[in-house]
Amino acid sequence: MSEAWGLPDESVWGKSRGLDPGLAPYPLVRHLLDASAMALHLWDAFLSENQRLRIAEGMGFAGESERARAVVGLCAGLHDIGKVSGFQFCSRHGASGLSQGLAKDRVRLTGERFGHDVAGLQVTQEVLKALGLVAGGEVRAATRMAEVIGGHHGRFHRVEDGFSTFLGDEVWAGQRAAHAGVVHAALGRPHVPEVFSAAAAVLVCGVVILADWLVSQEDYLRGRQRALEPSLAGHFERSRQDAAGLLEGAGLARVRLGRKGFGEAYGIAGEPNPLQRSVMGELRGAVGEGLRGGILVVTAAPGDGKSETALEAERVLSEVFGTQGYAFLLPTMATSDQMHSRIAGTLSRQAGRGGGLTLVHSMAWLNSAYADEGLEAQPVLTCDGDELVRGRGRVEADMRPQRWLRGAKRPLLAQFAVGTIDQALMAVLPVRHNALRMLALSGKTFIVDEAHAYDPYMQTLLGRLLTWLGAYGVPVVLLSATLPGWVSDRLVKEYLQGCGHKMRNRKGARSAEPTLSGRTFPVPYPGWLYVDGASARSTAISEQRRDEQASARSMELAVQVEPVSREAGVRVRQRQDVIEQLLEPVGSGEGGTALVVCNTVADAQATYLRLRDRFDRRAHHEGGTVQLLHARFPADVREARTLDVTAGLGRSGPRPVRRIVVATQVVEQSLDLDADIVISDLAPMSLLLQRAGRCWRHQQHWTRNGYPDGRGRPAWADAPRLVVLDPIAGTGRVPVQWGEVYSEHLLSTTSRTLSSLTSGTIAIPGQVQELVEAVHADSAEFQWETPGSREEKAWTAHKGKETAERSMAGLRAVPRPSVVAELRNLHHLPGEEDEWELSTRLGADSARVLCMYAHPDGRITLDPEGAHPLPEVADGQGKLPTALVRAVMRRTLPVRADWLTGGDAANMAPPGAWADHPLLGDLRVLRHPLHAGIPQAVAFRDHTLRLDADLGLVRNERDTRRQGAAAGRSMR
């Protein structure tokens, strides 16, 4: 090598901790070559065509993909260049092998400490100048490359002064140039681009992070450490050969599906419905050339097959826009779990077993879809030594493997991902590794189910994410049965802004310049609307197909409003009495199936107890005909109960003779249930219609194909019927027990709207959108007959809350890509925010609780019978096996964090052996004393908590006044 800076010194190390201590640490230059080779392979085999186009365009290399590819390889190859600094002395083993010329600077270079990622940000331009790559127009792009390199630990930083001592003198600068020179030469000496957009840089940073992680796996590094190739050129070639195996071993290799016909692909008997046929036959013409992405909004009544419609749309969109796979996002973990099972079947039927499918939510690894042996993680050595990161005052530890192998970051990278919308929204919050999330999403078709189910805070975050996806030309599909028109219009416009369209002309702009201001994008119901990203041209379902769909799913839903009360001594009937009377034909008569939906867990538990005692003394887990489902069960119990409920009320049967399911909002979305009658507490109109969608859901299918086991509906179920238990109609107010579950304004408006139904029926789907707009329209103001009335105050509170939520989301979200000047704007909040520090949802903080049982002999077990002792660290292992950790976590459940205040903090701490575990250490423990084998409640200041085998976690209020009086009497 004849470069002026000479050869790289291989005593400069890149990896040390976790490797063979009997060998020299892994040379930095070789790790840089590993990362560069992997980045090239990611470009070729992992990135979608759409992502490659967007990156190349962002670098000014449109039509010159190879040039962009080389720059990506260079960014990855320089990601750890900041380690040629005082970092070399943060590990005793690493520093002990340094050559004499570098080792002599120990005292001088360790006077100040910085993270090597920040050091890399500082030195990148210096290194690029040394290579002769920065002159004139390249300066700004070189600055962007420095930001990418400085962001490879998941957080972007600002360039600062005060690094001179840590970075060393010209000898160290020469070594940085020598290391960079080897990488640059291996890549064919690429040129730095003259431009480098922020949006493209975010994707490149994601590639760099992923490349670093893949080549930093412990087993791989140990193998390379033991058998270094004689030459750096040979090492680079070996790294390129290894890249495909590493990608495949991580489950990230891409596959092409063997597309099947509709029925075979989805395991559905019969032909696609008119809505699905429309997407299959008409969407391709609407998409056209597909130059810049597009957004599809699909609306239809519950049970109309929107999920399959979305997957058929994905076939068209992925082909046109060059995306690979899809992310299917839903509102809850329960709905995600069920959709994961459906997608798994769809992929397997299309020869997709080799394709990566992941379940993506915070508790996904507890799902039974993951076998215990699949949970062991390969350690990834992403940071070494005791490197202090300025401003945090703590040691930066290795990236915990669970965080990306089975945690919240890595699963989204799989070709096919099903999970909660929260995992995607993290991409637009200023958390670590948001660039990696954006990389994961931007290569797929992005599908959001139940788009109506998100509050204003989440809708704002979703809108910001759609703006970024629009900038990347990502095809988007939004699905909903009850989406207000103004919400869909806002989301479409957010997407189009990302595509480059302006909401309004800026001052001084040509008035003829087209804008989105004044335009609307109404979505037919039922039907779909496709809006092209390049032209903002909209195309809707044909009227013929829309009419066919409306006719095929036409249903007259009988709506019975029952004024009810919870209070004695009022003139309307008690809620529980009404429910029992309505269910008499089911529980004691001909049988059939009924779904009772309650607004709170406490109501569901109380209702279940009354119905169980009235119709079947057996508990749910004993095979009783009355079942209970809500979110406050341990994870394993909830999963089992969800499967039990969906099996009994599902499409394929076997259909039970009689079944009453009492549930909370967990059944509103994406659970495929069919009941002969639905009884619901009053809820906002959109949610009532969702609940009603579980009534006679599969009637058309069964009419065509026969009922499961030939058992039809009972004689009393002569028509689909929704019964609404309306306390406002009964007492004029919302029950205090409901707290702030729903806006009083929405409940009151829904109550008035239901009372105005002159026929006592709702035409499905004909009246659905009309009713949704009547309650959920974004009206600027209402006209009140009585100024200052309760209704007006409720509306004011409702609008104020919505405005506050949107404002908070706007403050927390990252900026739109068009206004990002520096990448550090993507981490604009103070501190080191990670997923657990910023929420995608507003509301009370939650904690994860594990219930234990304290026996009289001092033993603590996971069950009251004492058969399952607490897992302990096995002799010589030093840590709990993953299977045991999972067994513990599957017994946990979420509760509001404020429920645990006023308790004995020390008694709620997990066992000492669990304290340092990344999952078990964060648990809160409820130790139930056992008296005569019966678990006793755990007392807090104003309530008690008790895990009941049949009811789940029960919260009972304590009468603190009575207790205080009793205490006073005892003192006297």
From TrEMBL:
Domain HD Cas3-type: 21-214
Tagged with keyword Protease: no
SMART domains: HELICc (SM00490)
The keyword Hydrolase appears for this protein: yes
Alphabetical list of CDD domains matching this protein: Cas3''_I, DEXHc_cas3
InterPro entries tied to this protein: Cas3-like_dom, Cas3_C, CRISPR-assoc_Cas3_HD, CRISPR-assoc_Cas3_HD_sf, DEAD_box_RNA_helicases, Helicase_C-like, Helicase_Cas3_CRISPR-ass_core, P-loop_NTPase
Keywords, alphabetical: Antiviral defense, ATP-binding, Helicase, Hydrolase, Metal-binding, Nuclease, Nucleotide-binding, Plasmid
Pfam families membership: Cas3-like_C_2, Cas3_C, Cas3_HD
SUPFAM superfamilies: P-loop containing nucleoside triphosphate hydrolases
Protein family: In the N-terminal section; belongs to the CRISPR-associated nuclease Cas3-HD family. In the central section; belongs to the CRISPR-associated helicase Cas3 family.
Protein name, entry field: CRISPR-associated helicase Cas3
Organism the protein comes from: Streptomyces zhihengii
